[in-house]
Amino acid sequence: MILNEKNLSAIGASLPIPKYKRSTLKTGIVHIGVGGFHRSHQAFYLHRLIQENTESDWGICGVGLREADRNMFNVLNRQDGLYTLITQHPNGTTENEIIGSISEYLLAVDTPQEVIEKMAHPNTKIVSLTITEGGYNFNATTGEFNFENPDVRHELAHPEEPKTVYGYLTSALRKRRSNSLPPFTIMSCDNIQHNGTIARKMLLAFAKKQDSELADWIEKEVAFPNSMVDRITPVTTQEVISDLKDVHNLEDQWPVVCEPFIQWVVEDNFSNGRPPLEKVGVQFVSDVTPYEKMKIRLLNAGHSVLGIPGAIHGHLTINDCINDKVFAVFMRHFMDEEVTPILGEIEGIDIEKYKDTLTERFSNPNIKDGVSRICSESSAKLPKFLIPTIEENLKTRGQIKCATFILAAWCYYSDMGKNENGLSLEIIDSQKEQLQKAANRTEANWTAFLNLQDIFGKLTDSQRFVSEYTTAVQLIYKRKNIRALMKELLGSSF
Ligand code: CS2
């Protein structure tokens, strides 16, 4: 049976379906970047809220900005925005639920004006974003907006033809302003520390170039709450799609798999009202900084610390990595010695327990989170997840050996094109060519990879870092046994 509105009540005989009338939902949120994560996290919270508290003003209109979003557009249109959320518990129990909070989906490349109209509609109170770390369009070294981006250049020259998130946001905000409507809140849900502050800084830089009066209005009127978002959501496999068909006779072309854990901490700072998400477990706080730092520097960095050497060694999933004692001890050492000292006290949080929970979550055998997902877009992730930790430790003379080793391993990963079993490794990264080009020069110049200024920024000014990196990269290339080196690096911990 195809998952769609028409078949919903029949599907309801075997699976939980939305209990609310989806046709009466108003769109209160426009969300840019509907992928697995948005659907396991924000859309799930909204679904719960609508279901349990009859909050019908907070339906979601999903938006895809890129041609690459066409597949999501086709699937969600075919399925009337419905999809199955599959929660995988560590003990093997599976919960399936049909989520109904995405009531519309627009593909901006086809209907740009419709997207702008939707954002400018009086019912829209929030525009939320999961556009990935790379989508914010800043230079990692300077932290400034990248005006060299050809899409940005295009939309600055032709404001009526937006391409990036900034072109759309300014067009819609301009419209709201001229219609005397209050602005929407811009709510970033990406894994970037101070995600709201960065979204604000980037949008203002863009808007100032385009229309300085509008920029002044945005500066005064638009709220950009910072937030910490968390739920591990692996890539959906064909196997998951087939299982739904075989076991539940349900044809869902793009279900979402996730872990049971979920967390969302948001600053209570909204320009035009917000859904009462505290009713479904969202934490509203005045300052999210300590939570986001903890999550990004431990969970997200922890993933990369496992995933990059894991891919080189030939582990396929995060669960495979954490079940390998060498990897587990290495990650914990990194967390204990390199991250915990710079986190300081976080009110209400027991960091030791938090780290234990991460090990447990990474060990969930039913999540099968591929190392390829973790390693993808490392050029945008590592400058946010890992490099700042090295920078802080350099200032305080803290330890940097594990994090530096991971950067050296990343160079090897980018260079080799295959793992230590000889199987090919696919690099999924918008900077793939630059990474490969720099990494390919390593054996002629051991620090060639560090010349990627946009990624490593000022790290290369530190002699201590460059020397630790050089030692690590030489060992990795010469020994060709990443696991043995990780073990040796930790010495007496084994
Ligand atoms: C992961 C995140 O992409 C990554 O590298 O660390 O997607 C992670 O699974 C989520 O942030 C969990 O909340």
From TrEMBL:
Domain of life: Bacteria
Domain (Mannitol dehydrogenase N-terminal): residue spans on this chain: 28-279
Entry-linked InterPro entries: 6-PGluconate_DH-like_C_sf, 6PGD_dom2, Mannitol_DH, Mannitol_DH/Oxidoreductase, Mannitol_DH_C, Mannitol_DH_CS, Mannitol_DH_N, NAD(P)-bd_dom_sf
Signal peptide: none
SUPFAM superfamilies from the UniProt entry: 6-phosphogluconate dehydrogenase C-terminal domain-like, NAD(P)-binding Rossmann-fold domains
Keyword list, A-Z: NAD, Oxidoreductase
Keyword presence, Oxidoreductase: yes
Residue span, Mannitol dehydrogenase C-terminal domain: 287-476
Gene3D superfamilies for the chain: N-(1-d-carboxylethyl)-l-norvaline Dehydrogenase, domain 2, NAD(P)-binding Rossmann-like Domain
Pfam family, one: Mannitol_dh_C
This protein's name: Mannitol dehydrogenase family protein
Organism, scientific name: Croceivirga thetidis
